Structures are given as C-alpha cells and as structure tokens.
Amino acid sequence: MGACRKRWRMELMRVTLPQLIASVPHVIDSEPREAVVAMGLNSAGLPTVALLIDRTVLIDESSGPGTAAAIAEELAACGGDVAVLVSYTSEHIRDGCAALERLRLEVEFTVPAVELAAVVDGRWFRPGCHNPECCPEEGKELPAVPEGLPRLFAAAREQWRRADNALHERVRARFEAAEEWDEALRHGAVTDAATARRLAAALDDLCLRDWVVLTILGADDCAAEGALEGVGSEAIAHALDAAMYGDAVPEPLSVERSRAVIERVARAARGRRRQAAVHTLAAVLDWWEGNLSDAFERSQRALEHDRDYRLAELVNVAAARGIGPGWLGTAGQRANRAPN
C-alpha cells in the first residue's frame, strides 16, 4: 500500500490515468522499450511535454542523478502541476522501479503532484503497490485509446508552445523596458513624451514595477534581476524590511534623479492603474527619504486611483504610523510624520 499512499486522483482530468498511459505511444510517436516516459500535464490533464529517457541512464550512478535533475527542471518549465512517470521494461519491477524512484526524488521537488506507473507486457500497475483492487499482481489491461485523443494531445502541446512563446516575449519586453528605465534613472531624465508614455505603460507589468522599486531602494542586483525574471516574489517585502530596519542611507543624487524621472512619467501616465503605479513609486521615494508626510499623501493619491494597489497600501500604513526607514534612527533623526 505504501506506493499508493500519495496517489493522486484524477477526477478533474478529461483523460483517465489508464487512458493516458495507453496513449503514450501516440504522444511520443514510438513504442517505448526499456525506457521511462516523463509527461507534464496541463490543468485539463493533457500532456504538454513528454520526454523519453533510457532506463539504464537513470539507474546508472554516474549519469542518473544529473539526468533526473535535468528532467525535473524540464517538467517544471512546462508550467504544469502534475507529472506522470511511466516505466517500460521487461524486468521484474513489481516491488519497485529504481529508475522511477530516482526520477521521482527529483521531480517531487519541482512539480506538486507526481504519479508513478509501469507497463510490462501490455499491462499497467503502480510499482510497489500490491492492493488487488488497485494493482492486481498480473496488472491491469490497458484500455483502448479514445478516438480523437491523439489530436487532443497535439492541440494541448501546441497551446502550451504558444503560451511558452508568449511568456518569453513578455519577459523579453520586460527586460527591454528595464533597460529603458535604467537609462532614465541613471541620467535623471526622460528623453521625450513618447519615452515617458512607454515607461508608464511598462509599469502595468508588476515584475517591472518591482524592479524599479528595488532599484530605488538600492537592492542588490540579484534581487532586482529575480524580479525581472518573475521569481523571488518576496523580494519587495525583503527590500522594504531591509530599508526599514537596516542602516543603508539613500544617495542624494540618485534620489534626485529618480524623482525627476518619476514626476515626468507621472505626467505622461494614462489610466487609473498607471497613475496608481507612478504615485506609488513617488510615495516609496518619499518614504525612503524619510518624508512620511509626502509619502502618505502620494500613497493616498495612488489609492484614490486604485483602492487595491497593495504596495500603495503598505507605504500608506507605514507613513500613517510614523514608520520610516532604518537610517533615520541610525542618524539620530526623526521622520517627518504623516498627519493624523
């Protein structure tokens, strides 16, 4: 029963697990032999990626660990929450499959749910499970592949490919926008109105906005880069904590240049969401300077444009409570408190 302890039930899938296993040859366009097939599934339970791995490569002590780690990364990259790992072999693996276990140990770190299965002589079972109702000793006969299922799989893979391409395009555009913001912040100027509008529009992407905030607060390059890549979602919170409790002091020239850029972008911003974003940046800058009164006012203006703008709420609460950056205490100064 141990192998079924973490069994993932597939009620929400359009395709049952046995049907999925029966369809593997259609997914990979070949009949697996002495191999493991690793599939990443989308929210509908359809495979968007399928990888064929030689079992001996996984079992080998020199090549197995690295191969398993690479497969796990590939499955995670497909963006699904479920991985199905199927072993095909003539060996006796009724009590457990070493190749599957090595792969499972890595995949479980990157994918929330992992399902293991094996196919021997055309029948399937879960290695290590001896429950006669679940996995009889002779295994279960694979069902017929439902008509139209291979086309459905192909459509799922194409949909994922398009989504993946779109994601890469968004990331590329985000990095280009960061370069434009960086150029403006370093020089303290925006070249023209068209550039100001582009900078404002880029703030629709919260990852880019977080990068601007991290840059203003002087966060390290690793945290800022993580924000652009869409990882490290706690980076803003960590940066605010570091500014609140640390002793780093804002560099006057950098603050002056940032303010010039933000105010220019604010004049070009169109739409309530973009206005909220730019006023929030101004509020962060005011707070970083220790001017809680102005930070409170700018965060209020941001919230008037968008009551749910979370970063504006955080700055607003800090300013209202008189919580300033840590350097003020280190310098023996008092923050310019927000009005009660």
If you had to describe this structure to a student in words, what would you say it looks like?
The chain has 15 helices and 6 strands. The protein has 340 residues and is α+β, with helices and mostly antiparallel strands. The chain folds into 2 domains: 145 residues, Cytidine Deaminase, domain 2; 158 residues, no CATH class. Strand 4 and strand 5 form a beta hairpin. Helix 6 packs across helix 7. The relative contact order is 0.08. The N terminus is likely disordered.
The main sheet orders its strands as 2-1-3-4-5-6
Portion of residues within helices? 40-55%
The helix/strand series, from N terminus to C terminus, equals HHEEHHEHEEEHHHHHHHHHH
Termini separation (Å)?
A: 63 Å
Based on CA inertia axes, which overall geometry fits? elongated
**What's the average pLDDT?**
84
| Rg from Cα | 27 Å
- Could you tell me the strand content as a percent range? 5-15%
- Tally of individual helices: 15
Low-confidence stretches: 1-13, 331-335
Largest sheet: 6 strands, mixed
Report the strand count: 6
* SS-based class: alpha+beta
Number of domains: 2
